[in-house]
User: Which sequence fits this backbone?
């Protein structure tokens, strides 16, 4: 059984935290992006380039990772650096193994990176620069409930090392 945590920052070397208003509902652990209006929203481009910025739990208000931010709430945003470890959210229906590359699902969660193959030769596989991190544990989520049968609370979360 995997260990669960009650915080998004699992290992930090630099603590770059910004605060922005939420454009919509945001769950702690989601990959987020800055909008042109200066607010943050769930990262919206599936497989797209992403700054590894994650919504933290609002510990200053006594809230945990299970407490969403509402639209217009001030969101604590952590800009994770390479090597740091985040407790990020995995997309429903995803099956990842430890060591798999992860990218944006387009909904604020992460999914297994889809590499491009130029031919039948596996040496010609291209891993693009839109990889956010590497899974540090395996997870297989049910596409209906977003949970893993062997885990209790916070089962949609996964330890990810930022690349």
Assistant:
């Amino acid at each position: 059984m995997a260990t669960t945590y009650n915080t998004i920052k699992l290992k930090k070397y630099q603590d770059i935290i910004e605060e922005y208003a939420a454009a919509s509902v945001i769950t702690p652990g989601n990959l987020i992006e800055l909008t042109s209006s200066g607010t943050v929203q769930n990262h919206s481009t599936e497989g797209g380039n992403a700054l590894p910025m994650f919504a933290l739990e609002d510990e200053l208000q006594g809230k945990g990772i299970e407490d969403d931010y509402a639209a217009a709430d001030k969101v604590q945003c952590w800009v994770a650096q390479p090597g740091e470890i985040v407790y990020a959210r995995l997309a429903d229906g995803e099956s990842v193994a430890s060591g798999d590359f992860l990218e944006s699902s387009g909904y604020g969660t992460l999914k297994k990176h889809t590499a491009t193959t130029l031919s039948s030769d596996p040496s010609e596989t291209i891993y693009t620069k839109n990889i956010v991190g590497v899974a540090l544990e395996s997870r297989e989520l049910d596409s209906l409930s977003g949970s893993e049968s062997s885990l209790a609370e916070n089962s949609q979360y996964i330890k990810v090392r930022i690349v």
Summary: The mean pLDDT is 89. The radius of gyration is 15 Å. DSSP finds no helices and 15 strands in the chain. The first strand starts at residue 9 and ends at 11.
